[in-house]
Amino acid sequence: MTRRVHEVMTRNPVTVEGRTSLAEAARVMRDAGIGDVLVVDEGRLCGILTDRDLVVRALAEDRDPAGTTVLAVCSAEPLTVGPDDHVDEAVDLMRRHALRRLPVRTGSGEIVGIVTLGDLEVERDPGSPLASIAAAVEEGHKR
Predict the structure, then answer these.
(1) How far apart are CA 25 and CA 50, in angstroms?
(2) How many angstroms separate the CA atoms of 143 and 138, rounded?
(3) Alpha helices in the chain (DSSP H)
(4) Residue 75's beta-bridge partner residues?
(5) What H or E segment, with its residue span, contains residue 104?
(6) End-to-end CA distance of the chain
């Protein structure tokens, strides 16, 4: 039986408002021990900001971290999956679009999670090296 996204996703993803500075978003990521935040505008998903975005689209371009908003460098309008979608659908979407993470939102637009390559690897092959790394990282966040 094929599993659903809600069974493998990380619940309660961290969000920041679009007007948040890059410096503040970086502190949020650091404090939560994560590499991405979902960007929202009045609760509506409008982007995703990764630690790689901070480096490639901000620091490498000499943008001021305190004066630049996350909206200026985030990936806008990210593809999403629903919590009841099949995991295989999420894998296919990530493969076709070369994505490492997908926000999960309901039909009404509520953000309920995020599914990552690590989540999917743990699901598909719990004994793989990537799955053991993802599990170790996840365990480290619980401390």
Answers:
(1) 10
(2) 9
(3) 22-32, 51-53, 87-97, 117-124, 129-141
(4) 48
(5) strand 101-105
(6) 33
- Is the pLDDT at 10 greater than 50, yes or no? yes
Looking at residue 15, what DSSP letter applies? Answer: E
For the entire predicted model, the pTM comes to 0.84
Structure tokens at 107: 């039909």
* Integer Cα distance of 134 and 34 in angstroms: 12
Separation of alpha carbons 79 and 99, rounded Å: 9
Residue 104 β-bridge partners: 81, 113
Neighbours of 125 (CB within 10 A): 11
pLDDT grade, residue 61 (50/70/90)?
Answer: very high
Residue 17's SS3 state is strand
Question: What is the DSSP-derived secondary structure letter of residue 58?
Answer: I
Which tokens belong to 35? 């590499």
The sign of the CA dihedral 132, 52, 22, 78 is negative
